[in-house]
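step 4 of 6: structure.
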Amino acid sequence: MNMVKVFIVDDHYMVIEGIRVLLQHEPGITFCGAASSAESCMAFLLTELPDVILMDINLPGVNGIELCQLVRLKYPSVFVIGLSTFNQLSYIRKMMENGASGYLLKNAGREELTGAIIKVARGQEFMSSEVALILKHGNTSLLPLLTRREKEVLELIVEGCTNNEIARKLFIGISTVDTHRKNLLVKLNARNTAALVRISLDQKLL
Amino acid sequence: MNMVKVFIVDDHYMVIEGIRVLLQHEPGITFCGAASSAESCMAFLLTELPDVILMDINLPGVNGIELCQLVRLKYPSVFVIGLSTFNQLSYIRKMMENGASGYLLKNAGREELTGAIIKVARGQEFMSSEVALILKHGNTSLLPLLTRREKEVLELIVEGCTNNEIARKLFIGISTVDTHRKNLLVKLNARNTAALVRISLDQKLL
DNA sequence: TTAAAAATCACCCAATTCAGGGAGAAAAAA
DNA sequence: TTTTTTCTCCCTGAATTGGGTGATTTTTAA
């Protein structure tokens, strides 16, 4: 079997080094390069195509989700594994929806990392047990559970929409939006909109 | 000269590995261990005291700022270097106020990392040029400049205070708070409180 | 299939915020 | 010292939010 060529996109030098070292002596896997921005990643892909890209979600400028989509559209043979921190599980779904084949937390160990790479290189999906569990039940369990609708409303509130605008965007009545809003305040234990926004951004539960 | 013993606290295995490797062949520096939580860090310190701790600000449970304070109070001989991502500059000040001797971004390279460790181990302070610049001028310069008072008001708004509460806390009139609030909306180009909070958190300009 | 949860909408009322204006005193910069 | 900026305060009125209560329908889970 051929060697799996792995490329890393992460804006943290230390993380790149960490991964590179973890993969160093792994049979069947070669490290073929790294980039710290979406631009340099795309530039690299013009010269060489890896089998798997380990891609951080938080990149300066273009975020990982858009980059993932872009890469998958242009180079369907390149598989992407999302990388992120524990408290950003919210983005996992979006990453998967945009063509990622797997998702790893940055605290993953060597076995999990190599296992994920090998599996994804074969065209399969990989999901760490931790992530899979949370994806199933939708949240970090410590955080109050928000319903689908409540999340949508919250998202629009955070974007600065008034109840009126939210109602129009979601095709529901203003009073309904108001009810969701009140439930959000209770569930997130917020005193007002400001606190609501701060809490939801802090916890990244969008 | 003695070897500088370095300990790492970070909840991301990959970061720990990355740092460990960067320090591996560095003369004068030895890696003496790592922890992924505040608890296990404190437990380690009972058995052995490093010279320098590289400490991530984002830890599960107890955050790095509190841990830093705790460590410095109990073990004044141990110096702490804060670690974080670029978009969390807001916490740098707090970290330094709580006894950290330096601050590094996670995308720091080998030279910067070792330089910081050596300098801090001697009892000096270290600040990467990037961080120092931004600390000086308080913001990322792209952002509209807020006055001292406006920042105070904004901070309280983000914490969920009403104008009334803010007025009492700052010993000024409600109308004054209101004026500041309006100016904040204009300066940050926000439509309402929600947008104001999101923008200020996004840009970390507290 | 039945029970529980979520989504929908309505009403009232108080509190707060938003938008517009003006205006004087204090502090900082020129 | 003069000018500019910041900080202070007030007014009016519209819009939005916050708190409480209650009810119907739809969806989901047991």
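step 5 of 6: annotate
 - Residues 147-150, 172-176, 178-180, 192-193 of chain B lie near DNA strand D (CB under 10 Å from a C1').
 - Strands of chain B lie at 4-9, 29-35, 52-56, 79-84, 102-105, 126-127.
step 6 of 6: archive
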